[in-house]
Amino acid sequence: MQVIINGEPHRMPETMSLAQAVALLTSAPTGVAAAVNGDVVRRAAWDSTSLADGDEVDVLTAVQGG
Amino acid sequence: MDDPLLIAGETFSSRLIMGTGGAPSLDVLDRALIASGTELTTVAMRRVDPSSAGSVLSLLADRGIRVLPNTAGCFTATEAVRVARLAREALGTSWVKLEVIADERTLLPDPVELLAAADQLVADGFTVLPYTSDDPVLARRLEQAGCAAVMPLGSPIGSGLGIRNQHNIELIVESAGVPVILDAGIGTASDAAIAMELGCAAVLLATSVTRARSPELMAESMRLAVAAGRLAYLAGRVPRRRYALASSPPTG
After folding, report:
1. Which residue from A30, A40, A65 is facing B19, i.e. has the nearest CB?
2. How many domains does chain A have?
3. Which DSSP string do the residues of B166-231 spell out, in sequence order?
């Protein structure tokens, strides 16, 4: 299946959790948030959240700004 | 003198809120933040970049500075609410500097989207600190919506033009029941002092420090200016007069 992670298309195995998608980008234990198709998913639910073909995943953290 | 800043039940001994944007390196930012004496500092939320080194979050944690996420870059209430929720999840704080801008050229707040976002975030349990224009009516509406402070601009973000409409800032301060924080437009120390003399509870600035020739020195000057302006406000300035008033006794 194909998943969009932070705007980039990725070819993925048929079963993949949000936790696995986030781990492609960062291993930071805190300071990171993720959304699937615009909806925020709490960190505690990353493992149990399965991604589907065409899902858009956003993984954000704090940067210098403001 | 014990004169803490109080926002939503939290106290701060510094009345200078810093931003972190524009610093050439984390090391320069670190020294500027220390020199500023700030206890509350903004960060932006962006997509994770695996190649980026160092973290502004760990810097703030090391210095014991409370983090205030913003919604910079959002043009609609929907976007801003989403970023605020992501920030709450990532950073474990329900405080947000709400920024909903109208266009890239001016970065002025979009009042309609701003008020809509404030309504939604307050209902969702956020402590909302909105970046707003210097319109006293909009400031009042934001306070009525339940915002914990109002943060009018002095002039456009990063412009360094100072406070273009001091009268409006005074009007906002006069009627506000929440802290008024002058946000955006500060160019140099005197601008920060004027904001405090007008009765603002605090000043939020970034560019004037982070893009100064010496950010560390400018940060210290801002710390002193904010403190001086606050003291002057509390002391009460003398009235302006058209003609002289002798300061020595006329007779004897």
Report:
1. A65
2. 1
3. HHHHHHHHHH-SS-BEEES---SHHHHHHHHHTT-SEEEESHHHHTSSSHHHHHHHHHHHHHHHHH
Q: Which domain holds residue B20?
A: 5-235
Confirm whether B208 is domain-assigned: yes
Q: Could you read off the pLDDT of A28-44 as tens digits, one per residue?
A: 888 999 999 989 999 99
Which residues does chain B have with pLDDT short of 50?
none
Please give the model's pTM, rounded to 2 decimal places: 0.91
Looking at the DSSP bridge assignments, the partners of residue A31 are none
Is the CB of A31 less than 8 angstroms away from the CB of B90?
Answer: yes
Residue A43 lies in a domain: yes
Q: Find chain B residues with C-beta within 8 A of A64's C-beta.
A: 20-23, 26, 29, 43-44, 56
CB spacing of B45 vs A59 below 8 angstroms = no
**Closest Cβ opposite residue B21 in set A26, A43, A65:** A65
